[in-house]
Structures are given as structure tokens and as C-alpha cells.
Amino acid sequence: MIAMIKIARLLLFISILTVFTACGKNNPGTTEKPAASQAQQESGKVEESQKPIENPMESNPIENSKKLREMMPKLVKDLKKVLIDDASKLWPSFNNADKQILLLNPSNKIAYLMNNQKSDIGSKDEVIEYNTDSIKDVELLVTPFQLTTFNDHPTYVVNVDISSSFGMMSGDKAYENLFKFIVHEGIHLLLQSGDSVEGLGTRAETYPEDINSRYYRNEMYQYLKEASKSKNRDEKIDQIQKAVYFYELYLNSNKKNKQQDGYDNIEGMATYLQEKAYLLLNHPNTSTKELNDLTAQSIIDNFIPADQEKEGGLLVKGREFYDIGSLAIVSAVDLGLDDKAIFTTSPLGVLKSKFGSQKAEGHENIKTANNDYYISYNNQLKSYVDDIVSKQKDDKYAAVRIPVTINNASVMYEDMMVEYKFKGNPAEIQTTTREIVLGDTRIKLNKMKSLYIQNTMEILKDPTKMDPNMVMGYTIVYVPKKDIEINKDKLLTIQRDDLLIFDAKYEEKDGEYQILMK
Q1: Cβ–Cβ under 8 Å, residues 159 and 70
Q2: Is the pLDDT reported for residue 32 higher than 90?
Q3: Among residues of the chain, what percentage have pLDDT more than 70?
Q4: Does pLDDT of 457 surpass 60?
Q5: Spatial distance between the Cα atoms of 309 and 306, rounded to a whole number of angstroms
Q6: Where is this region: Disordered (predicted)?
Q7: Partner residues linked to 405 by β-bridges
Q8: Are 78 and 278 in contact (CB under 8 A)?
Q9: Cβ distance 213 to 229 under 8 Å?
Q10: Cα–Cα distance for residue pair 271/291, rounded to 1 Å
Q11: Model pTM above 0.85
Q12: Does 163 have pLDDT greater than 50?
């Protein structure tokens, strides 16, 4: 279950254009009457709603709130068109007739409900406007996005205030980036949640990084890019077969590569459809072939090299699933391959089964650049891992273990994730910014390096029915003992720039300060 795998990990994976995951909950929305019966979608000029918006994390919140308010009417109109009215034009099996979309803009106290399923407050065609103060489920107001229940119906909820700080960049592409971000996560939660793909493993970094695997991936990208550009079917297939050759080398060179194979489908499909959705808005009368070509070019144009100072730069490691997966889907669609196969299988696997492979020589400049880059990269990873290992061994540091549930954790920003073994169990070293609520205790991590250990649990098919109090895993932080305060009531407090914990209940166990749920 694609969306559930992302939900179950309860983490946000950031890579260049930020990619989210979020928690589904079974909390009902308000059943009160909305503040207004219909959004005034034409109440602002389109040009004004497309004005640039700076990153809200780095600029004036009041000004950002004003700009978001200007954007909302157009955003509502465009999202309704691509995710509800014309969903099947994005992908044949995409049908949201029974799904609602709720956009929240808490800073302006406005929410917009699209495809309303509650007939006593309006028709499906109306866009219902709410005052966010009337929404009883306050958790909706602090989660960037999720698939949940609102007014007793399945609903894709997006908090624009929070999401804009991750989905947008400053400049004239602000609206485009936010729109694409909402569509991307909507594809995960609305389209992909009912199907599965082959093989899924952790997306954390491996130390040391397998340099050969990264080279094979870069060659796959180069040949898929040429395939997408080719106007001749035979030439296109020729490039695809060479990409498949390196795909086979990639799968056979490392066990983890096979485990991660399905992510090319998950992120590739969402990337392909976010680009197609934006182009559908701006080229409504274009042919299917022209739209596919435009989508391919857009994916290529949005490529961001790992080494931006070198011409023809390498893939960013965390972006491989998005760039390679989406380009493989471009060719599979262009060549008329089966929709269901493309949707449910690794896209390179689909191309392999249809066209086979042929040996390719590759690109010597890519190989040289790859080796140089990842030798340096491995040195950085070593430093990252060594830092936390040294703190584990240092008597001046203490481990603080914090339980993470579906319900208690807000946005998590991932600077880096590296696979790690902790007491023989799989774990990840992370640098995170997040807030965790445990009863009356609020814990804030600000770019804090930590370990994350995930609990083994059953993955439920319906993300709206997961127990919000289920412990998904534990975050372990290493803190100088001198910074830990224990008061007379045996409550723990830590006040640091990277970690704030006030009056938390705890127990000392297994050499750790283990924070209690209540």
C-alpha cells in the first residue's frame, strides 16, 4: 500500500523540492454549517494570485498570510479541475468522485472544501467556505497534509500555511511549486493508496555509499533522457534498451537496490503527474502526444544536479526515484504500454519486459565525475555517522528516548537520513526539526541529530483507521549530561538551541532517560 508505507514511517523525506509524508487519522471534521456557502473563486485577479511568494520560514508571516490569501481562489479552482473534474485525464484509473479535498489556510482563518459530499450544506459543484475556528479537529490545523475523514467522508486535507513553507520557493514559480506539491502528495494519497509495487526498502543513505550503483543510476538517467527526446520510435527503443542494461547492473549489484526498486514507481508517477497536471492547466487544448512531450521536457528542465558547478551534473541521490522514475514513465506512456502495468510496477521493469536490453558503453565523463563526487560524499557520511557514535561512547552524554505516535508528532524536516545498526536493530541517523506532544509535555527538536528506531507493526490498508496512539517508533537524542535538569518532582527539563523539553515524566532504563507517554 503505497500511501500507507509513507504514512507508517511517520517521517518527511526532503530532497531538493521537498517531498512529504504525513499521518492519516480517524478524527472527524466539523459537522457545523460552513461560514459561507461558496468560495468566491473570482474574487481576485489571477495575476495577483500568481504573485511571487517567499519562503514563509524565512520571511514576514503577516505578508505571507496576505499572499496566500491572494492565491487561494485560483489554487482552489485549479486543484478542483485537475484532482476532481479532470482526474481521469491525468491517469485513466484516477477517479475522485467520492473524495473531498479540504484546503486549510489557518493564518487567514479560511478553509475551502471541494467536491463536498454532505448534501445538506451544498452541492458537489459548490466550493464550500469555512472559518477554520469552526473546525473541531484541531489536529487538522497542525498537519501539512493527510488522508482523513471530514464530515464523515474520505478527504484529502492540505494545510497551505504549513505546506507552503516546504512546497514553495521564492520568485515567480511560487504558485507553480505549491500547486505541484499539493498534486504530488494527492497522487500518493488519492491514487496510489490502493495498489502496490514491487519491492520497498528504506530510503535512508547507506554508509559507505555504493559508488557503482550511483554510476549505474546516472547512466540510466542519461539514456532515459535521450529516449524521451527522440522523435523516432526505433531510436527511442534503442536508448531505452541501453538504460535497461544499466538497470540490470544496478539491480544485481546491491541487495538494497532491489528492495528500493518500487520507489521509482511511487515517486516517478507522482512527479510525472504533477508536471502533467500543471501543463493541463496551461495547455488545455493540446493533443495527448504534445502533452506527453511537454511533460518530458518539464521533467528534464526541473533537473537539479548534485554538483551544480559542473556542466552535465550528476543526479542528486535523493532525487533518483523522482527523476529516473518519471522519465521511464514518460517513455512507457509515449510508447503506449499498458496503463495498469505502468501504474503498479517499477517503470524500468515494464520497459525491460517489453523491450529487453542491449549492452551500452556508457559515458566516461559521467563515470569519472561520479567517482570523484561520491568519494567526497562518503567522507561526509563518515563524519556524520562518527559524530553520533562518539556521543554514544562519551560518558559526558546521556541518551534521551522519546516515543513517536501517529498523533503526537508534527512536521519533521529531514536534513539527512543514514542507515545504522543500534543494538543489533535497524535504525536511522537523522537531523530533524519537529515537535512532539506527550500529554502536557511539548518537545521541540531544531535541526537536532538523533536516532530513529521504527517499531514493527501491521500496515493497515485504510490510513484513516490507524490508531492515533500507536507508537510508531522512538527518537533517541544524545545530550550533554550537564544540560539535563531534574527538578524536585522528578521531572526532566532540557533547554538548548537544538532541543527543548519541559517537565517531562521519565524513567531511567537500559542506560537511557526514557520519556513517558503520560
Answers
A1: no
A2: no
A3: 81
A4: no
A5: 9
A6: 27-65
A7: 471
A8: no
A9: no
A10: 15
A11: no
A12: yes
